[in-house]
């Protein structure tokens, strides 16, 4: 009887031991799983830290660049302000803003000049000559002498404005002069350039340059 009890106890003990062994194995497996998960979590945490560090570094770089741009802009604005403050104010006279000279106004005075010569109207002719012209006095004297001796016909064959500004212009011309009556005279064709300047808001002939003279008889 005693042996049977002992055997039963041993069987129960063995069974209990086997159960404990199984539970130990299960616990060991669970521990291994926990270690694996912990390792994965640590790896993920390290990756997150690296990503966060990179993001922070990028943010610092961007902030530094933005601050540099702001500093440069502020410096430029300060320089402009200083220049505006320290630059001397230039006093400009009040002058009328004139439109570009009209080519018609320029050529009109030349046609009036020729018409006055044909009409032998010395006053009208001299009204087309600039008072400061170096040829003003000699022109008036010569014109009166010609009118006393000859009856001449003047024809403006061509006229073209070469260049002009608000107060001066140069004009090419071809002028033909023929005798109508009077003593011997050589008809001629003169090619040249007239220089015009403004006088009291009007264009006047200031000077002339003769380029070529052709005698026609």
Strand/helix succession: HHHHEEEE
Q: Helix/strand/pairing class, anyone?
A: alpha+beta
Q: Please state the overall shape, judged from the principal axes of the Cα atoms.
A: rod-shaped
Count of DSSP-assigned helices: 4
Mean pLDDT score, rounded? 76
How many domains, as an integer? 2
User: Order of strands across the biggest sheet?
Assistant: 1-2-3-4
CATH-assigned fold name of the largest domain: Nuclear Transport Factor 2, Chain: A
Could you describe the largest sheet, including whether it forms a barrel?
4 strands, antiparallel
Please give the number of β-strands.
Answer: 4
Rg is 56 Å
Q: What's the CATH architecture of the largest domain?
A: Roll
Q: What fraction of residues sit in β-strands?
A: 15-25%
Distance between the termini: 176 Å
Determine the fraction of residues in helical runs and give it as a percent range. Answer: 55-70%
Poorly predicted segments:
55-80, 83-99
Structural commentary:
The chain has 217 residues and is of the alpha+beta class. The chain has two domains: 1-84; 103-215, Nuclear Transport Factor 2, Chain: A (Roll), CATH 3.10.450.50. It contains four helices and four strands; from the N terminus they run H-H-H-H-E-E-E-E. The protein has helices spanning 2-86, 103-118, 122-126, 136-149; strands spanning 151-164, 168-181, 188-199, 202-215. It has a four-stranded antiparallel sheet, covered by helices on one side. Strand 3 and strand 4 (202-215) form a beta hairpin. The radius of gyration is 56 Å and the shape is rod-shaped. Mean pLDDT is 76; it is low at 55-80 and 83-99.
